[in-house]
Amino acid sequence: ISQFFSRLTERFVNGVDVLMDTFWRIWTDLLDVLGIDASNLTHYFSPAAIANNPTRALLLIGAILLAYWFLSLFLGFFFYLLHMLFGRFFWIARVALFTLSCVYILQKYEGDPEHAVLPLCFVVAVYFMTGPVGFYWRRNSNSSLEEKMDHLDSQIRLLNIRLSRVIENLDRSSEQ
Q1: Distance between start and end Cα atoms, the chain
Q2: 35, 114, 115, 156: which sits with the fewest CB atoms below 10 Å from its CB?
Q3: What stretches pass through the bilayer (predicted)?
Q4: What is the mean pLDDT of residues 138-146?
């Protein structure tokens, strides 16, 4: 059983590595289109390079904002799709993805745990952002406010009907 799970985690890690490599190649191609050399990104972060060429700083800020936008679109669509598929059981999908992400990171950085801290923090942040404080929960609560009010109104009507029946039964029993 141990050997089966070790092979399973190795294949899972290799599959995620292939997926991440594909995303990285698409991202580097996009950066190349923008005129940013993706093979030497550390060059763009040096203060001397930014001081010599201020347009590089603008390109770098634009690339960072573009990366943030793509990441937020991807995560938003992905978790919206999961929320639509799983409905009330969305928490199971969140826990499963969180667990698989942690397994991937811990397996990937098995020999070097210091480098696993930042990716684990990112995974935990995404986990909490998709929880009750996330966009999906707030959006659904705002759009269904009228439905919640109608539901509360119908519950009050039912309680009034039951209360009137209980009072009538009490009156009948006291008359007898």
Answers
A1: 73
A2: 114
A3: 57-82, 89-109, 115-137
A4: 59
134: left (phi over 0), alpha (psi -120 to 50) or beta: beta
- Residue (of 69, 80, 67) closest to 134 by Cα position: 80
Note the pLDDT tens digit of each residue in 111-123.
Answer: 888 888 888 888 8
The alpha carbon of 20 is separated from its chain's Cα centroid by a whole number of angstroms, namely: 17
Whether the predicted pLDDT of 85 surpasses 80: yes
- CA torsion through residues 14, 18, 24, 28, sign: positive
128-167 burial, b at 16+ Cβ within 10 Å, e below that, comes to eebeeebebeeeeeeeeeeeeeeeeeeeeeeeeeeeeeee
Q: Please, which contacts does 162-171 make with residues 24 or more away whose CB atoms are closer than 8 Å?
A: none
Radius of gyration of the chain (CA): 27
Q: What is the largest CA-CA distance in the chain?
A: 100
